[in-house]
Amino acid sequence: MGALLCYPSDKKYTINGRSYTLSGNTLGEGGFSFVYLAKDSNSKKYAIKIMICQTSEALAVAKKEVEIFKKFDHPNIMKLLDYSVLPSDKVDGAKDVVLVLPFYKDGSLQDLLDNQRTIYGKNATQPAVYNQKRTLDIFKQICNAVTQFHHSDPPLAHRDIKPGNVMVSVAPDGVSITPILLDFGSTRDARIQVRSRKEALSIQDDVDQTTTPSYRAPELFDISSDCNLDERVDIWALGCLLYAMAYNKSPFEIADDEPNGSVALTVLSGLPNQFPNNDYPKPFTDLIRNMVNSNKDERWNIDQVLEHIDNITRS
Question: 14 pairs with which residues across the strands?
Fold first, then answer.
């Protein structure tokens, strides 16, 4: 399906008077959305996200994503440069919601992790991409971005925090690194009271379509008919992301030699008692354990996470 819907390399879009030409390089793909490398008339590079909306419900979800972009102005949150809603020339009667986004040549955190595993082996848990100090600096910036979501009114949950949704911008000096959180198609109101099986099934279907299992909080795997969900689903994902920055993969990633393994069962089993190696001090691993806590009522909130990071960096 994706191959049938993808756009040719010479496809042009004119959005609010500016012309963009797709390069043919696909930067990302998910469901009925595609992200392409594009250039304007001055050959400046951009990322163009195209969401093909075949129903009014899909169009409403896409427009909600636009509103999330417009809600925030933060150095660690992806900026929406422009957008338009156009008739789709791929699907009759559908609409294309076209977003113009910055292009980050340094790729994503997932690209960096994949590179480590290419060099050192698929199951290599060391060396990490960055040392502890740099890891915590980058991670704190990501947490600062998440704070914007959790402290909004009403609170929002990103719901799909993972290395692939964090771009990396390296300054010209090669030293300063700015992580950029992106992809808000999964973002929902954080605090939800589930009071019926119908509500639970509806939310479960949404979660299954918009979140990544190896970074998904346990309460989102089998949503109860009588429960409360909140923004701490993101804290779990952040803990998995920090673990991945330290050990090159999520703690709940199924290994290649476990083809019949279940991510859900692995997640519900919680963190392993022992981490892969002893390269990190206890305050660092404690930070991960308090985020990746199967008991969501004991799981830290974003302010506690930031406070602990500050305590580590001061010590």
Answer: 19
